[in-house]
Amino acid sequence: MFRSLTLTLSLALAGAVALPALPALAQNGPLRIEITDGVVEAMPIAIPSFFGDPEIARKVRDVVAADLTGTGLFKEIPADGLAAAPGSFAESIAYEDWRAVNAQALVTAEVTGSGDNISVKFRLYDVFAGRPQGDGMQFDARASDWRRAAHKIADQIYTRLTGEQPYFDSRVAFVQETGPKNARIKRVGVMDYDGANILWMTDSSSLVLAPQFSGDGRQLVYTSFDSGFPQVRVMDVATVTSRAVTQGADSMAFSPRFSRDGRWIAYSLENGGNTDIWLMDAATGAQRQLTDAPSIETSPSFSPDGRQIVFESDRSGAPQLYVMGIEGGEPTRISFGDGRYGSPAWSPKGDLIAFTKQLGERFHIATMRTDGSGEKNLTESFLDESPTWAPNGRVVMFTRVTPGGNGQPRLHSVDITGRNMRPLKLDFAASDPSWGPVMP
């Protein structure tokens, strides 16, 4: 269903360009945007029309521009403010012309097609240094995968200019919601991170909740009510086939999540009126109980190394966050602020935990360090919930529900500074996002 792109480092591309002598104002280090918790000034970037097939070149250019400007870190110079573009992809860059329009970075690219395949090559230039920023690169792909080629280019530019890991060429699993609040119809879908290329993984015949990607993006684990009671199912994304991995007739299993290496599935099991965290070997199905308390323990999330689990528990009288090893034992409470804490998600970088916080009548998506220090609210609304991390640990996607009898859930994203929040462009209600890895 998903095809790999051929990625070729084209050192010859860089060598084919006649490099001008470095100007006097050339900088010593590479062009780099500084991302801090202070004020970030968006970097002016020029992305003139790409060369090659006009229609596909325009679409690829537009996706690259949308990816970069969507981060809030880049400001695209409008078309009527650009300098005269070179006459061809191979032509040398007149850096002084681009400095005159205050471009700090310049992207040129060429998109060519042959049958069902396309080839996209690009270069990134440090305008003020007057030199290429890294080698030119070429991506070969099926024509139907042109958006993936565009995301790969944007990922390369983002990484070279920020020093951060990429995340544009990734997918998000989610739940589509239709119908009135008291009779919701839900189905699981998978889409590009920006809402394009939606594929439906389940139909609407039974209620489904909270899909979660495996670390390699090849499987989903989710809660299904197709047996009449909530149980955990695992789906192969490529074949869209699923199997139940819990089947207790007198218990309810829900809120599952994979460890990054895919070896384990942690989930909540309600039995006899009590809910605890359980751990399942994904290969053998062997299960063991990790918590044993009269309180409600739910929403487990693994640390990136798979050795710890953060979860939500009301054992203190109100929902708070706790961390324990995967062998179980006495957990350590890490949240102590006012309000109710829930739905924790451990960052793929391992440094932060995102969670939902209810304080009074308002909900927040917030983050804290893994020891509970440095708590920081990123959002505030009538109802924000279900955070999930981008693969690079810089952006969080979540569900925002609008108030009122006709209120609907919508997906939004926010960066970890809390300054750049954006709604996802979907024309339907959606919830429960799970951000998968960058695709190979």
Automatic annotation (TrEMBL):
<keyword id="KW-0574">Periplasm</keyword>
<keyword id="KW-0132">Cell division</keyword>
<dbReference type="InterPro" id="IPR014167">
    <property type="entry name" value="Tol-Pal_TolB"/>
</dbReference>
<dbReference type="InterPro" id="IPR011659">
    <property type="entry name" value="WD40"/>
</dbReference>
<keyword id="KW-0131">Cell cycle</keyword>
<dbReference type="InterPro" id="IPR007195">
    <property type="entry name" value="TolB_N"/>
</dbReference>
<feature type="domain" description="TolB N-terminal">
    <location>
        <begin position="31"/>
        <end position="131"/>
    </location>
</feature>
<feature type="signal peptide">
    <location>
        <begin position="1"/>
        <end position="26"/>
    </location>
</feature>
<comment type="function">
    <text>Part of the Tol-Pal system, which plays a role in outer membrane invagination during cell division and is important for maintaining outer membrane integrity.</text>
</comment>
<protein>
    <recommendedName>
        <fullName>Tol-Pal system protein TolB</fullName>
    </recommendedName>
</protein>
<keyword id="KW-0732">Signal</keyword>
<dbReference type="Pfam" id="PF07676">
    <property type="entry name" value="PD40"/>
</dbReference>
<comment type="similarity">
    <text>Belongs to the TolB family.</text>
</comment>
<dbReference type="Pfam" id="PF04052">
    <property type="entry name" value="TolB_N"/>
</dbReference>
<comment type="subunit">
    <text>The Tol-Pal system is composed of five core proteins: the inner membrane proteins TolA, TolQ and TolR, the periplasmic protein TolB and the outer membrane protein Pal. They form a network linking the inner and outer membranes and the peptidoglycan layer.</text>
</comment>
<dbReference type="InterPro" id="IPR011042">
    <property type="entry name" value="6-blade_b-propeller_TolB-like"/>
</dbReference>
